[in-house]
Amino acid sequence: MVILAYDLNSMTIREIFKRNLKYYRKKRGFTQEQLAELINCNPKYISEIESRNKFPSAEVIDALALALEIPVSQLFAD
User: N or C: which end of the chain has fewer CB within 10 A?
Assistant: First the structure.
């Protein structure tokens, strides 16, 4: 049996994604509304992702990375 230690101080993948999405959105100078328009979704959805209430599908993650002109991996980089 393998038991994995979990550091309660480490960020979850959702927290990392949320932080990075907001960082790269602002770095590109986009509002939530502008980013939503680029990926054809409701601005409220971007807000919900950034506030950690929602986690996007793989298709939305691809669209976000494309709109932000970054590799998908950057959205998950710690």
Answer: N
